[in-house]
Automatic annotation (TrEMBL), chain A:
Its main location: mitochondrion. This is Cytochrome c oxidase subunit NDUFA4. Pfam families: B12D. Belongs to the complex IV NDUFA4 subunit family. The gene is LOC122221215. The keyword Transport applies. The keyword Endoplasmic reticulum does not apply.
From TrEMBL, chain B:
The lineage of its organism: Eukaryota, Metazoa, Chordata, Craniata, Vertebrata. Keywords: Copper, Electron transport, Magnesium, Membrane, Metal-binding, Mitochondrion, Mitochondrion inner membrane, Respiratory chain, Translocase, Transmembrane, Transmembrane helix, Transport. Residues 92-225 form the Cytochrome oxidase subunit II copper A binding domain. GO terms for cellular component: mitochondrial inner membrane. This is Cytochrome c oxidase subunit 2. GO terms for biological process: ATP synthesis coupled electron transport. Its cofactor is Cu cation. Coiled coil: none annotated. InterPro entries: CcO_II, CcO_II-like_C, CcO_II_C, Copper_CuA, Cupredoxin, Cyt_c_oxidase_su2, Cyt_c_oxidase_su2_TM_dom, Cyt_c_oxidase_su2_TM_sf. Binds a copper A center. Belongs to the cytochrome c oxidase subunit 2 family. Component of the cytochrome c oxidase, the last enzyme in the mitochondrial electron transport chain which drives oxidative phosphorylation. The respiratory chain contains 3 multisubunit complexes succinate dehydrogenase (complex II, CII), ubiquinol-cytochrome c oxidoreductase (cytochrome b-c1 complex, complex III, CIII) and cytochrome c oxidase (complex IV, CIV), that cooperate to transfer electrons derived from NADH and succinate to molecular oxygen, creating an electrochemical gradient over the inner membrane that drives transmembrane transport and the ATP synthase. The gene is COX2. PROSITE patterns: COX2 (PS00078), COX2_CUA (PS50857), COX2_TM (PS50999). GO terms for molecular function: copper ion binding; cytochrome-c oxidase activity; oxidoreductase activity. It comes from Panthera leo (Lion).
């Protein structure tokens, strides 16, 4: 696949930006989805050792991809431990 | 509220709606620029006597019209995602109001301190007083303190409804058996109108929502008078 990309790019150099953007888009999508599948607390990977990950959320962790205004590391924990 | 021959959005009453208005202006400007450029080029192509019938190789212009649209799309996507994440933020509401959709009225419950609940029916057209808005006024408005973050918990007692107030940028479905949450922050006092936004039967168009945002002392006086 990569050899085909290079041979086409040499014949038609105007295709290079296209490959760059498609490559960046695909890599970006993979880089977003992979950590989401592994580290998102809504996902249950290990049913025996870590069954309900969504019940163990800390107040200072940021679980979302991007935070606009709220600085999660500065928040205080509101409820009691259980 | 909405007015006849309105073309754009209603004036923003919450910070999120202001962001959405600016984003809409930005994206619509891009759309207008691209459409007018395309229309101009089409008009040029239809009004020329020049012809060229052999295959053309145009590497440079192809590069330009690959990179430029990609950049434009990124310039649209980044503000859009920023607003999307901003709408989801944790912002410590000071007040919680519950609203249940019924066929065909809304009921509101302010149960943080006392048990205050009431129904909100539309005022029929025959009973409107002069100056009131047809199909938008209700008998009991939702009075809320302004400049206070309010948590709205929305559900339904029968069929699907949707609780919407356009000038605050709010629209949340009221689903039976499900509790949906949205946060509300009104920046100025006034009356803000919305209508049920999910088809729910014969009187779906006749169950509006009216928010009355007032300073906190007035809100406290009102809630005491409603108990």
């Amino acid at each position: 696949m990569l050899r085909q990309i290079f041979s086409q790019a040499k014949k038609h150099p105007s295709l290079i930006p296209l490959f760059i953007f498609i490559g960046a888009g695909g890599t970006g999508a993979a880089l977003y989805v992979l950590p989401l599948a592994l580290f998102n607390p809504d996902v249950n990977c290990d049913r025996k050792n870590n069954p309900e990950r969504w019940n163990k959320l800390g107040p200072n962790d940021q679980y979302k991809f991007y935070s606009v205004n709220v600085n999660y590391s500065k928040l205080k924990k509101e409820g009691p431990d259980f | 509220m909405a007015y006849p021959f309105q073309l754009g959005f209603q004036d923003a009453t919450s910070p999120i709606m202001e962001e959405l208005l600016h984003f809409h202006d930005h994206t619509l400007m891009i759309v207008f620029l691209i459409s007018s450029l395309v229309l101009y080029i089409i008009s040029l192509m239809l009004t020329t006597k020049l012809t060229h019938t052999s295959t053309m190789d145009a590497q440079e212009v192809e590069t330009i019209w690959t990179i430029l649209p990609a950049i434009i799309l990124i310039l649209i996507a980044l503000p859009s995602l920023r607003i999307l994440y901003m709408m989801d933020e944790i912002n410590s509401p000071s007040l919680t109001v519950k609203t249940m959709g019924h066929q065909w009225y809304w009921s509101y419950e302010y149960t943080d301190y006392e048990d205050l609940s009431f129904d909100s029916y539309m005022i029929p057209t025959q009973e409107l007083k002069p100056g009131e808005l047809r199909l938008l006024e209700v008998d009991n408005r939702v009075v809320l303190p302004m400049e206070v973050t309010v948590r709205m918990l929305i559900s339904s007692e029968d069929v699907l409804h949707s609780w919407a107030v356009p000038s605050l940028g709010l629209k949340t479905d009221a689903i039976p058996g499900r509790l949906n949450q949205t946060t509300l922050m009104g920046t100025r006092p006034g009356l803000y109108y919305g209508q049920c936004s999910e088809i729910c039967g014969s009187n779906h168009s006749f169950m509006p929502i009216v928010l009355e945002l007032v300073p906190l002392p007035y809100f406290e006086k009102w809630s005491v008078s409603m108990l």
